[in-house]
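=== Structure Prediction Worksheet ===
Name of assembly: unnamed complex
Input type: mixed (protein and possibly other molecules)
Chain count: two
Listed entries:
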Amino acid sequence: MHPQPSSQAMRTIVLFLMVSMLAGCTTLFRPEQEHRAASVVDYLYPNASEAPRLQPETTTLRPPVRVGIAFVPGGQWDAGASEEAKQLLLARVKAAFAQYPYIGTIEVIPSGYLRARGGFDNLDQVARMFNVEVIALLSWDQVQFNDTRAAAVLYWTIVGAYVIRGDKYDVQTLVDASVFDVASRKLLFRAPGSSREKGSGTLASFSERSRHARDRGYEQAVDNLIPQLKISMDDFRERLKHDAYVKVENKPGYSGGGDIGWVGLLLASALIFIAHVQRKPA
Amino acid sequence: MCSASLPRLPLVTLAVFAVGVLLAALPESQRIALEYNRDALATGEGWRLWTGHFVHFSLRHAAVDLMALSALVLCLERRGEGWVAVSLLLCASPLLSLSLYFSVPGLTIYRGASGLCATITVMLGLRLWRDSRRSRPFVLIIAILFIGKLMGESSGAAANFSGLAGGVQVAWQAHLLGALLAALFDFGILLSGMSACGTFKKIVMLSSKPLC
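=== Predicted Assembly ===
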């Protein structure tokens, strides 16, 4: 029994088409741009139709300040870096700020405790739970551009899908730290960190490679964020000197400096001058 | 003859300045052992009552405080009251520390000579007030400014101008207690007709005589 010639030709065509589709499906359906983000504005003001009105109340900071740090919840299934990676990144930020005497404890808050679009109510709950006065919220925005090289045509050879790096990615990450005083709900200062990761991969390895690139993107953005955050914090300390709405108070267990200051030095000098003039014979 | 040819060295000032510089040059680990520390004092580390006033948090902190303290001590010495300076430094330091210990329980660590500076400034001001009627308006202006500074520090308004290391607040209580101590000292000296400090005066006068 020999199959009919027309039936055999049909089988060959179907088989060829199936193999072609298998090889090309990833390329055909991979989006050109992938976007993942978690916005601090969406988290804190989920239903805001207009700009929030803040009362001009005084923010009181009592060093050493207890600080919490957390990633803003994304609210998507694929919410950026993995929880483990996020904890490691937050631990890195924590280590960079542990040596400042005006920062007391730094609590790393797992994402699970923050509810997507939870607002300040959720922030208050978390602050109470972790006993922190100030929270640094890390929002993130990551865009991945996927492009295909001309060499991708060799994917059709099947072997090429494993050998030829025919796909390119360009991952741009922005991490932004916004530091809020929980009691007054005031933004104290903010700092950005960014990174760009470029690379390429074969059809078979592209997904894995681009995922690692996205993780590296977060790491590099956080590394870039840390010095920026230190600069912003120093600027904030300078700004404190002129900002009537932020007050620094002592709390029990504080360190006190017997600092006469320039004003005191000036007053003492004036007194010394009077004493000197008084001693001069008339 | 000898005193006419050689200017008398301000020994007390030099000693105060040298001690201050020496302690400022110490590594942080050793300065910690000398600072006013409430818990350490409670365990009997009594030297901190004195040394806490001569160690500082930073070089800038030490420089400003030492400049003021040395100038004030020099001024007293030039007035022939080096003994007042010595007795103030020796007696006011522990009294100030003890006052802080009992009246400011929240203050766990303290460093700086400004409490002593406040004591000597007030002491000098009181003396100038008594010595010359002509100086009184100026002394009064300085006193008002001093009180204003103290109020600014206590309200927290001037806390941010201190330039102290982060997390360290101006211990304005030390300035207030220093000023009160000076008033008490001056009053005590007046009452006793300087008899209480007479011995001190003799010792310092002898020690500050030029060698020849």
